[in-house]
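Pipeline run #58 for the internal structure catalog. This entry was flagged by the ingest filter as a single-chain record with no existing model, so it goes straight to prediction. Upstream metadata was stripped on purpose; only the residue string is passed forward. Reviewer on rotation: M.T. Logging verbosity set to normal.
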Amino acid sequence: MLSPARSAPPPEPDSPREPHRSGRDSHGDHPSTPTARGPRRAVLVLGLLAALAAIAFPFAPVHQPEVRYTWTASDGSAAIPLMPYQPVDLTVTTSCAAIRGTGVPGTARPDRVVLSTVPLRPDPTADRLHGLRLTATGDAVRVASAGVELGTVPLPSGPCSFSLVSDPEHTAVLVNGVSALTHDSDVRPDVAGAFSDVPTGVDMALTADTRFQTTITPLKTALGVVCVLALLGMLVALRRADRAVTAPVRLLPRRWWVPRPVDAAVVALFGVWWIVGGITVDDGYISGIVRSIGSNGFIGNVYRWLNAPEAPFSWFYDVYYAWSLVSPSTLWMRLPSTLLGLLCWWLLSRLVLPRLGRFAARRSVPWLAALGLATWWVPLNLGLRPEPWVAVGGLVVFLAVERAVAVRTVTPLAVGLVVAGATTAVTPAGLMAFTPFLAAALPVLRLLRARRDLHVLPLLAALVAAPASAVLLMVPDQSLAGMLEATRVRTLIGGGMEWYQEYERYSTLLDAASFEGSIGRRAAVLLTLLAAVGVLWRLHRARTGIATGPARRLVLGFLLSLATLTASPTKWTQHFGDVAGYGAAVLVLGMVAWSAGGSTSTVRERPGKLMAGLGAVTVVGALVLAGYNTWPYASNWFTPSFSTLPPQLGNVPLATVAIAVGGLLLFGLLARSAWLRAGGAAEVPVPSWVPAPAPLVAVLMVAVLGLQVLSFVRVAAEHRGSYTLASDSIATMRGEPCGLQRLLSVETDPAAGLLPIASGPPTPRTLPVDVGGRTLPGVAVTGRMTTSWFRLDPEQRSDTLPVVVTTSGETQPGDALFIEFGAGERVLERRLVAVNDPGPRDDRQLAPAGATTVRLAVDAPNPGPRSPAVASLPRVPRLTPMTDVLPVGTSAILDWPVAFLFPCVVPEPLPLGTAGLAQWRVGPPAGDPAAGITYAAGFGGPFAASRLLVTEQRMATYLTGDPTRDAAELYRWIPLEPLTRPQPVVTDRTVSGWHRDGHARVPGLDRVS
């Protein structure tokens, strides 16, 4: 059997010792006694019961609403935007008289649409769906569905009935009840509504696809209860079996509850970062999903993937949903990740470090641990993403495995497997929670082989039932068929990478132009990788006070966890936050192993090792310092320190300084060593003034951490009157929780702000320019001309509001559009206006001091093959507070890049197999196309059908304190025509866990024939 953790070479004084009981035989085996037989049988029975209940859980029946819509042509055009796009079944009934209309049989009549499930004249900028279209052509009906021309059905003379039925198996047309056309495959149409040129006599009925909107049944609830109770009973029985053969060992160290100065420092740092810290790129995405759970009835992906559930990785969304019921504000919603960070600190400082060796008793070690955890947590783990949960779960499993190895008991293994399963149910990367079992495979197997008192079958039952319990979290209210279909849709639409493209994650980490490669993320990952290599190299070569076994398993677990990231379909550096707990502990080990204590004094006598360490720190440190202090979206506003260039010393990048100084130092040490060895010296110790690698790493970590935190503090202090995460947090504490919305104003009528002519005749050759659903007078960017001088508004002369010019199109090479500011008719300043966007784009310019007038100047002498770009005449924005346009509680589509910052706007629901027909949409800045997935059929955009029914009217927004910034866009959705909203008939049915009604088809990806 493996003995408890030992230091290298002397044993740890505080390390748990292997307990002995008199009942053990001379070979270390545990006898099978009547005392052990009872727990063993209980473990077997309860373990099997828990495992079987967990296996049966996904197959259990669920409640599913049956939603039936009916429509008749006399109701007029109707909006029925389905989500998923196809109904479970659809029926159309009409008569030949209605199809022919008032014409005379046998005479030529114009074609007309009997029924279409997509608009007849949709907005050309909206993504297309392929619906059902019945077109009357003389005495016949042409039938098309799902983009497939099914054929033409002739009509008999005289009265007749005409009907169409479509389901996943076939689509058929019947005339007088007799099949006239049949297509034996799934060509169910996409449905956005019902539209017809026929005024009356056409009826349609359909059943919406609600396969994902299921709820738990009593039987499934009972299976879950049985599984939980059996699992708890099994753990109790395991504990009794352990107590029968091992002496009790306290779970927590003495005085674990006593606060320390370092605890106060960690709480203060995490508290400050909670208030001022940056958001993650996915906070809006997760916020939209979480806040929609109540209205949608399940955890659906409201931005793509046909609103498919996030199962089997979704239980933490339910936690966030319950949390959001108190307040969806940014301050409140970021509190759980901060609390998880503090829990991670408690686990690290109270349990992990003492397990790693007697070095933990040094006064400096807790401070190094705090620095290591902050290095990981600050750039990666504040927000709504799942990484904080995985980081904590991974540490808990590591501790469970280490306790099992140390005290020779099986119960911690079972608990660790339960936690590992629950962590895996958070996100695919949570699979790394099982790596502690791999890292400790040999001692764990020895432990299991030694427990003869439990026998093979009870152990096997326990070790299967424990992780199997995660199934309860993976599909709590979903059916197995629903989860598999959601997985199929996600896989089909894609968006991820293959496992062998894992190098892309590290390539992105070294991309200076992206926040994915920010200086904070580089410091955490690169320095920890360096520490891991250093620990493995030094572990058997120095007296460090590090317990060899636990330290080796910790480092191996960290590296294995990084390896499991290859299974993640996306390769973002944000996922490195999953190993924050591991990483902090590895950083501590690395700094202890290479610190200036007794271990390094040995290294100084062997200069090769110390110089190798200094060389590695020089290279890695230079790579870290080459990163930018960049952050996603609103976190990067107002230019945090060194967010547009790497840290500098004067005008020289610190990365260059580091590589130069480090290189010169190493060259000098090598030259000195060579000189002395040439004189006969056997060993040349490194001079005492040369620093060890660990202090250099610590200084670099402090500098990077300070740069991140203090730059946010500086931005918050300098821009108190505008939007920062700090001003949002403070406003929330004052009772103003509306986030970015409270500081935005909307230009509701661009025409109201046209500037008056100051002098000269009106501008010649004006033409209408689209400024986002409305037109203003403007000019073409062609030829050479200047507009009239326009008088600046008083708010423009005082720098409160900008001059706004809206452009569309792209200029030819060599052409240019300028905005000229003047005093009267004297030009004070000329600025280039960028014209490089096919859609309406606002150019906002603050007037220089002394300017009273403004005009446009066109210098475009080069005619080109395409239509010239256009620009509106200058205007001043007439603004209305956004809280007046969208009062608190207003429903709107919140695009995922901005959803987190608008807590007072209610997400548009996606209820009962349909999508809402919103009146408003809040989108990201005009230059950000990321939100387009929500309206693209090929991505399974949930609002693609709704978008077909409307035109968008753009309303620019202006941020208090920074009016030239395009912080967000507001869109009004205006229906193409008056639309009725049929009310569904909703009933409830119980379906088996494997029941499905065909596939939910993704247009353009699922094959239709």
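catalog note: Residues 1-34 have pLDDT under 50 and may be disordered.
catalog note: The two ends are 64 Å apart (CA to CA).
status: ready for reviewer M.T.
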